[in-house]
């Protein structure tokens, strides 16, 4: 667990979860995940979001310790997704005097999840730029719709210059595990918020007008130093620009022959000077990591077997994910394999042509069962084109 004392007035009351099998029922989290929550102690006390029902007991224990016998005056609800909102009803019932702070989109959603007696009389509805004084601390609310749900807002605390950033700047990984920030933050970003780059850009623009000393997200570590690094990565990611030069080779192989061709292409790319080559077997790797790598590098080669008059399903699944995350701005190579009627390239092209601002590299390579002289030559030509960035 994190150092609970963030400042003299701000206390971390969140909890780690190492037992969850899949976060949001789809993401593997080998190092767990944290559900962050904070309390600001002043003349008035504000609780900044609750936590997932999976950690209810720990969260309430942490809250009570932080309160030291006092009662919270406000619960600020920045995001209604259950990993943060799951304990709103319990908290509201425990402290019936507590006001609940949200925006116009928060409360209709809250009523969908919970029936809370007298909610309307306890609601404080805030809008962009509104402030709430706790005494020495002043909360300033900044709307952040679609980062990651429509009701999301972030909160800037003016006296200590803290940005409570909701899911923004979050990452997979519990706080009691030390690991590189960018790897799991990037996987989190592209899979969870990736579709909403324009909305993240809008939030970054608002954040640039604030003097921020610390970022306090709802998952992952509190960011205290070198904030330009994190803000810079978020700017790159949300503008759909590649972060690294290199080629991501994603393949879908039934019996291993497309896999062999992928290895061959990898060698060719390296020989021809590609800065970095990353090869992934879509059937046996984490889809979320593949999405992350697709966005990370400036070039991608999609290699797939034909199947049932279309493409091997795991490739179609990958392409559907890329489509839903607004994949764009990349150079894309296509390689299909087919033993009697190759159809994979047609299907892959159908997806790729609809991505924004992509270049499909020539030639599109067709392999008939295994590489032969002609298909290896074509693969070499594709490697020549893909080895170089724009
Ligand atoms: Fe961590 Fe969108 O909830």
TrEMBL record:
InterPro entries: Flavodoxin/NO_synth (IPR008254), Flavodoxin_dom (IPR026816), Flavoprotein-like_sf (IPR029039), Metallo-B-lactamas (IPR001279), ODP_dom (IPR045761), RibonucZ/Hydroxyglut_hydro (IPR036866), Rubredoxin-O_OxRdtase (IPR016440)
Classification via SMART domains: Lactamase_B
One term of GO molecular function: FMN binding
Residue ranges the record marks as coiled coil: none
CDD domains: flavodiiron_proteins_MBL-fold
Domain of life of the source: Bacteria
Residue stretches making up the Flavodoxin-like domain: 247-390
Homology family: In the N-terminal section; belongs to the zinc metallo-hydrolase group 3 family.
Protein name, as recorded: FprA family A-type flavoprotein
Taxonomic lineage from the root: Bacteria, Bacillati, Bacillota, Clostridia, Eubacteriales
């Amino acid at each position: 667990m994190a150092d609970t004392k963030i400042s003299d007035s701000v206390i971390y009351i969140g909890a780690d979860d190492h037992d969850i099998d899949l976060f949001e029922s789809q993401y593997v989290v080998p190092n767990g995940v944290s559900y962050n929550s904070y309390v600001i102690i002043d003349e008035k006390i504000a609780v900044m979001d609750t936590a997932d029902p999976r950690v209810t007991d720990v969260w309430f224990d942490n809250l009570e310790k932080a309160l030291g016998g006092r009662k919270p005056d406000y619960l600020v609800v920045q995001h209604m997704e259950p990993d943060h909102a799951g304990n709103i009803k319990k908290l509201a019932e425990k402290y019936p005097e507590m006001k609940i702070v949200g925006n116009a989109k928060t409360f209709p959603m809250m009523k969908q999840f919970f029936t809370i007696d007298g909610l309307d009389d306890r609601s404080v509805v805030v809008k962009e730029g509104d402030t709430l004084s706790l005494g020495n601390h002043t909360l300033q609310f900044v709307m952040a719709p679609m980062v990651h749900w429509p009701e999301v807002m972030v909160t800037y605390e003016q006296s200590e210059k803290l940005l409570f950033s909701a899911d923004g700047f979050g990452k997979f990984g519990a706080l009691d595990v030390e690991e590189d920030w960018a790897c799991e933050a990037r996987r989190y970003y592209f899979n969870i918020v990736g579709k909403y780059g324009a909305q993240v850009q809008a939030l970054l623009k608002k954040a640039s007008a604030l003097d921020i000393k610390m970022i306090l997200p709802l998952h992952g570590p509190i960011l205290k130093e070198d904030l330009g690094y994190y803000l810079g990565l978020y700017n790159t990611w949300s503008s759909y620009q590649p972060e690294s030069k290199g080629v991501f080779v994603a393949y879908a192989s039934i019996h291993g022959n497309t896999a062999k061709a992928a290895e061959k292409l990898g060698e060719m790319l390296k020989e021809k000077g590609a800065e970095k080559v990353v090869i992934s077997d879509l059937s046996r790797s984490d889809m979320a990591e593949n999405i992350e790598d697709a966005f990370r590098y400036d070039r991608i080669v999609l290699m797939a077997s034909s199947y049932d008059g279309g493409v091997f399903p795991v490739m179609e699944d990958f392409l559907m994910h890329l489509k839903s995350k607004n994949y764009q701005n990349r150079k894309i190579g296509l390689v299909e394999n087919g033993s009697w009627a190759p159809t994979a390239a047609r299907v892959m092209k159908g997806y790729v042509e609809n991505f924004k601002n992509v270049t499909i590299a020539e030639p599109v390579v067709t392999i008939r069962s295994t590489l032969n002289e002609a298909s290896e030559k074509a693969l070499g030509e594709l490697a020549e084109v893909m080895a170089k960035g724009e």
